[in-house]
Write a structure and sequence with these properties.
With 485 residues, the protein is α/β, with parallel strands linked by helices. The chain has helices at residues 2-17, 22-28, 33-43, 56-72, 139-144, 162-170, 184-198, 219-226, 230-236, 295-317, 339-346, 388-402, 425-429, 458-477, and strands at 78-80, 83-85, 87-104, 107-110, 116-117, 127-136, 151-156, 176-181, 202-205, 213-217, 241-264, 269-279, 324-331, 355-361, 377-381, 405-407, 435-439. The protein is built from 14 helices and 17 strands.
Length: 485
């Protein structure tokens, strides 16, 4: 009861103490639909060739964003051998599968037909692997086991959240893991969705430590590997081994990509930093030559960050600087596995211990089917995961200024889309930095050439940008940084 009373008092204090700041309102009005459209007309143009990580269009986009940061008067915060820069360059390995297969005798099972090979590791031609059937295992059980040098086949019931499972399996100290997905419809879904991604070029941070070999298969594959019916294998096969040949041949190229950073130094607490992010990369040009412009994903988030940066810069030019520093950062490599934000959080320009919050904007220019009759909304994800106080700041910023419908559908732990784990904020959250992820939901043009500027709703995008601005204004100027739970 005491905790309930304290919480009620705190909420009342919050409501009564959060009134409109006229200065914030004034500079929020510099966020305009015309600016958003002008910026997006460049970033989502054919001339940028779909902004694929490491390619010419991505580098052209980076140069454009850096030029904007410079014109706003933001500092270049990255130390390089040539001096201070807006670019945080990072090395990548670009990998393209030539072939991957499993062989037993004369029988062969092939990648993307019988299984999915999900690894950045290639073999030295055909290699023998001894596979141990470990039965049904949770990821938590696997984390407790001594897996060094072992290649296991395990049955997992956890593939509803398959992206998270794969990320955790990647970190296991095993030579390899075969994940047997019993639900055929789930296996088919993963095969369809993930194969499309893996069949193109993959990328990994050059600094990433050597990983393990991960294969996603089904009961039919398990039965073939161990020469037993699947029912018999599950009942009696634990501890059984089988020797196979694995061949995974890749073309590996060294490339670089860039995050683009612009810094506004705080007036009273400059060592504390609020980070506002979006990703500016997209998926490039399709095999048939069509350009994927990525107007919503994530051109919309990138130009939102530009407009917020401009608004704070104009205020600072008039002597109204935020108390805390703000880092405006557009990252690349998101479409390749959140690589740019991963690199930053492993190599932060400003200490993560002093990073008070990350506000991440990824797809905010459209209205999804669920909200066609009520377009004044935005999905808010993750605000309460690490800090209930951050959630309250978000709620009150919206009530005080923008009155959007904050939709928490995708914030639920049970939501199958698992968007909390799928954009750049997650790399900050993994480092215990409170985050908010702003999102308009998916649509039929996602990752297709039809994601074009003509379909952007600039009026609602402006409103969402202003919500992020007001939330950032409060976080940058409040007396105390938001506290972790």
């Amino acid at each position: 009861m005491k905790h309930l009373l304290f919480g009620s008092i705190l909420l009342l204090f919050f409501i009564n103490g959060f009134s409109q700041d006229k200065r914030a309102v004034k500079y929020s009005n510099t966020i305009t639909t015309s600016d958003l459209k002008d910026y997006l007309s460049v970033l989502a143009s054919d001339s940028l060739e779909g902004r694929e990580t490491g390619e010419r269009g991505q580098k052209m986009a980076a140069a454009y964003i850096a030029e904007k940061f410079n014109s706003f008067g933001l500092e270049a915060p990255v130390k390089t051998d040539e001096g201070m820069s807006y670019f945080q360059s990072y090395p990548l390995k670009k990998m393209t599968y030539r072939t991957a297969y499993l062989k037993k005798g004369e029988e062969v099972k092939t990648n993307f037909e019988d299984f999915i090979y999900n690894s950045r590791e290639e073999t030295l031609g055909e290699e023998y692997v001894d596979i141990l059937f470990a039965g049904t295992q949770t990821i938590e059980n696997l984390k407790k086991m001594d897996l060094s040098g072992k290649f296991l086949a395990v049955v997992t019931q956890e593939m509803g959240n398959w992206r998270k499972v794969l990320a955790e399996v990647k970190d296991l100290d095993a030579a390899g893991i075969i994940l047997i997905v019993e639900d055929e419809s789930r296996f088919g879904f993963i095969m369809t969705r993930y194969s499309r991604y893996l069949q193109g070029s993959r990328m990994a941070l050059e600094t990433t430590t050597k990983g393990n070999k991960i294969i996603i298969g089904n009961p039919e594959l398990a039965s073939w590997i161990f020469d037993m019916s699947y029912d018999e294998l599950k009942e009696k096969g634990k501890g059984k081994t089988s020797r196979l040949i694995l061949n995974a041949d890749m073309l590996v190229e060294d490339i670089t990509a860039e995050n683009v950073l612009g810094f506004l130094k705080g007036s009273e607490k400059p060592e504390e930093v609020l980070v506002v992010t979006s990703h500016y990369d997209h998926i490039g040009i399709s095999e048939n030559g069509e350009i994927n412009n990525g107007a919503d994903d994530d051109g919309s988030g990138t130009v939102t960050v530009l407009e917020i940066a401009q608004a704070f810069s104009e205020a600072a030019a008039k002597g109204i600087k935020p108390k805390r520093s703000i880092l405006f950062m557009t990252v690349s490599g998101e479409e390749k596995g959140l690589l740019g934000s991963e690199y930053y959080t492993e190599n932060p320009v400003f200490p993560l211990a002093n990073t008070v919050t990350n506000l991440n904007v990824d797809m905010v220019g459209r209205v999804d089917e669920e909200h066609e009759k009520n377009p004044g909304y935005v999905y808010v994800i993750g605000a309460d995961k690490l800090s209930k106080e951050l959630h309250e700041v978000s709620e009150m910023a919206n009530k005080t200024y923008t009155q959007l419908d904050l939709d928490y559908t995708y914030n639920a732990e049970t939501d199958p889309n698992r968007y909390y784990y799928r954009s750049d904020h997650y790399n900050f959250a993994k480092k215990n930095v409170p985050i908010i992820f702003y999102f308009n939901g998916s649509h039929a043009d996602y990752h297709r050439p039809t994601d074009t500027i003509e379909k952007i709703n600039f009026e609602i995008m402006q409103k969402r940008a202003q919500l992020v601005f007001f939330t950032a204004w409060e976080l940058a100027n409040r007396e105390r940084r938001v506290q972790l739970d």
